[in-house]
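Listing 4. Sequential folding, example run.
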Amino acid sequence: MNTKQTRSLLCLILAALMLSLSACGKDDGGNSRGGDKDEVLLPISINGKEIRVGETTVQTLLDEGLDVSWVDGDYNRITVDPATQLEPNSYYTGGSIKVTDNMHFAISFATDEEEVSLGQAVIARLELSMAAEDDKSVLETISFDGVPVTELTREKAAEKYPDWTGNEVMWLHYGLEYKYDLNFDISTGYLNRFAVERTCDVDWNG
């Protein structure tokens, strides 16, 4: 093989490599932050009051008249004081939003790089478990991504979110920014628990 042929072969190999790398950059399994169609915030609503995990603050919940409480240092559940100062880069669990005496959303909230009041802390995680005996008329006021939880079945979830994964009792999406966990009753196929979480950059070592 002469020099000219060698150069032509090298050019062809380099061109093939560039095309291969370009394809990998475009098809990364939906894990790219830039323009990833799966990295979408799906809102939760209670009586028409929207909660956007990773954006909605505790104060917003209070302003909308929601009954928010949390567990204090002595493990007592108390009504939140929005003026309470929180540490920066921290994650707090033990919060809840009361729906009825027997139904509560479990919430966690996080702070950013500066110390803030509890009212300004952002909701970082939200979870609701539902039981067969729960009041259906109450559940109808709660929606996940615009769909009342009483209408969200395992089959409908698969149709609505075809890129997620799971089995007959769960349908999941764990992205770079958001995690969605939908759980279904195996006998009825209807939703009985869901959780939404936004990945937070916090100091887990305290």
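-- end of first protein; second protein begins --
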Amino acid sequence: MDKTQAEIYSRQMLLPGLGQAGQEKLLSSSVLLCGVGGLGSPVALYLAAMGIGRLGLLDGDVVSLSNLNRQLLYTPADLEKPKALCAAERLRQQSPQLQLDIYPEYLSRENARRILSGYDLVMDCLDNFEARFILNDACIELGIPFIHGGVYRLNGQIMPILPGKTPCLRCLFPHGYRSGAPDKAILGATAGLIGSMQAMAAYKLLLGLEQSPAMLVWDGEQGICQRVELSPDPDCFCQQGS
């Protein structure tokens, strides 16, 4: 860690359980963001500011006007440009020393193992269950922990998923998911809140701090955050190797 980095991270190094050793661990960590939209924007900004050494940015979409109410990595000057490339440019301005891997493509069964391999942690910032199940299965097979996040209107949830130790998405949805037109209503602040919670969960997981298998559910209409304790499905494939 050089003098500039020591000054940038000086306040967070005062945190119990972090210090210089913990900060150097963050600087040597790698995190892949699957999706750099509403959730991925705050997650990326906070992980970069936190000092994660290497970030992967996976997103095959381009910036549109309807993104700008919540996807804070982008401005009107980025319209119709690939999100992964624009996000990388913005993050380099914030953290010039950050190593960035850019994947301007959508997650698929064909590319999942290739892209995910080698990362310490994956962030589920996706916006559909088909892609989430692809991510879930690849992470379980590769033994890579990931942090699920989802938002809907004023509500959202996060859950850390540790292969072989905690429930996975198939434990929660053993019969799959219903396809159909999604409800796209979303307040930008909801994505900011849930994305910030995901970044905090990543901090704890990368440092080996206590991490509960519970799902945190935020009800923005009532202003209530609930902790839902979950147990793995012993018949789920995620538990077969444990």
